[in-house]
Specification:
N-terminal domain of TfIIb, GMP Synthetase, Chain A, domain 3, OHR, 148 residues, 6 strands, OsmC/Ohrsf, 3-stranded mixed beta sheet, alpha+beta, Ohr family peroxiredoxin
Length: 148
């Protein structure tokens, strides 16, 4: 890491695991954590996979914006992250898979895929999970109905 300059640091605390509570150490954010109903939990709070999808999506989109800027592309873009949790039957062995769908307004899928692949190569989350989580990056049509 000696070639890198630290830009930011944050810390989070969890109590109770998947049926507990998580918060940022600086007190700026807190969330109830619960196991999804589909996994036998209450589903009353958020789960780690949802939070990972949010974080990875925001980080990936940030990397995409940097790459778009390098290519002088100013079109609006959107990123949809789907995180899947798998378990081996009869074993306490779990793994994640992530599908990242990228749409860039008024850009064809081939050009979008090129930019998305470049973003994947520089995204800190993508680098962190490389070799550990299967990540599929796919260009899709931009969907204006998803704008907020």
């Amino acid at each position: 890491m000696s070639d890198y300059k630290q830009l930011y640091e944050t810390s989070a605390v969890n109590t109770g695991g998947r049926d507990g509570f998580s918060y940022l150490a600086d007190g700026s954010y807190e969330v109830k954590i619960s196991t999804p109903k589909g996994m036998g939990g209450t589903g009353e709070g958020q789960n780690p996979e949802q939070l990972f999808a949010l974080g990875y999506g925001a980080c990936f989109h940030g990397a995409l914006e940097v790459v778009k800027g390098q290519h002088k592309v100013t079109n609006a873009s959107q990123v949809l992250n789907t995180v899947r949790l798998f378990k081996k039957p009869e074993a306490a062995d779990f793994k994640l898979e992530v599908e990242i769908q990228v749409g860039i307004q008024d850009l064809d899928r081939e050009a979008t895929q090129k930019l998305a692949d470049e973003a994947h190569a520089v995204c800190p989350y993508s680098k962190a999970v490389a070799g550990n989580i299967e990540v599929f990056v796919k260009a899709v049509d931009y969907d204006a109905s998803q704008e907020k």
